[in-house]
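Researcher: I'm preparing a figure for a lab meeting and need a structural model of a single chain. I don't have an experimental structure, so a prediction will have to do for now. The sequence is pasted below. Please return the structure as tokens so I can convert it later.
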Amino acid sequence: MAYAEINKLLLQSDIEFSAAEAHGLATGLLCINQQTKSDCWLKELLPVGQTLSQQYSDLLVKFFNITHSTLTSDDYTFNLFLPDDSEPLTKRAEALQSWCRGFLFGVSLTGNSAVNNLKNGREILKDIAEFTRLDTEVDGEDNEQAFMEITEYLRAAVLLLRDELTPNDSDTVH
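Model: Understood. Here is the structure written out token by token.
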């Protein structure tokens, strides 16, 4: 799914989240609880009392399910959902801020404080909170490189949180 397609769908549906922020929200919810269902995510996206057409609802559920499958996959295909590299860096930096806000919102909605008890959890959340304050009036090769490094850090940090929050077979009682 293309960023512009999801962003347009959200705008047409009068949803106040950008595609990046909606993806961050889904990622935050799923990172803490991989059993989160799309209806929980949609409930947070939609203003109270608002409904979507079946077509739009189906597309957003598909978007959520893709996010779920890439996040929970062991092949590390998860990526932040941001505008294409052909877009101006300023627009991508704004989307990155929105993604971070959405992620933090998703994590906070779970009410699960386990992430703060992880050895890396508190530090990662602190870093993500800092990224919500990035200067978005950027351009140039140095800023492009910094943007790429931040997005790769975020991708790796999310996967690390996912791994630390996902019980493995040796952690479960039989």
